[in-house]
Write a structure and sequence with these properties.
The chain is of the alpha/beta class and 253 residues long. Helices cover 38% and strands 24% of the residues. Helix 2 crosses helix 3 and helix 3 crosses helix 4.
Length: 253
Amino acid sequence: MHFTTEQHLGEDLVERRFRLCDIPGILWTPATADAADPVPIILMGQPGSIGMERMYPRLAARARGAAAHGFASACLEAPGSGGRPPLPGVDQARDQLRSAVFAGEKPSDDVIDALILPLVNQAVPEWQSALDELLRLPEIADRVGFSGGVIAIAVRLAAIDPRIEAAGLFAGSYVPQSTKEEARRVTIPLHVLLQWDDEGNDRAAALELFDAFASKEKTLYANMGGHTGVPDFAGEDAARFFTRHLKRGTECP
């Protein structure tokens, strides 16, 4: 990993862009973070295929919110997104899934596997490599959360990497059967956000995945409205969750 740019976003937040081999990423840290006062870090997932630059306003807003609560945050360009090479077969699978959903049909397991598994299989080792490097920075504490999607990426990371201590997930329903099996190995605290009327998700399938998690502490936050109707207070709820689990000795109001 090497840093390519650094800028201050106001007085309280430092943004550094980096490259992990040829993969672009961004690290945000509170301006006060240093070796004497390291901060926990939240890995910020994002939807597949959109690209980090198009998502930047939302990512930066999430980073500002995290920094206000004393967290660093980082994102990576997802495989097949931005300027990265496309994943073989994924575009075709995405078209097939959309056609099935628009026709009111359930996408086949083969289509879901072809869309999701190549992304998960490549993204998870990349996130682990990025975390190896991020945790070497003196201003980053060894307390790690994961926030956001793609939910199948978050599930596998939570199942296999013990460094992930808590996860705030955006509920998704079109996941491989293997993801549901992996969910049964997830035992960390979970905060799952579900938009009840999300036009792009199968609510029953999302609830089935939530039920599969083996975590003793898992909370489902369901709000009325579609995919883009997440209420502003949902971010504060997630911040309290991460504060409770990543900032040891801190009491939440």
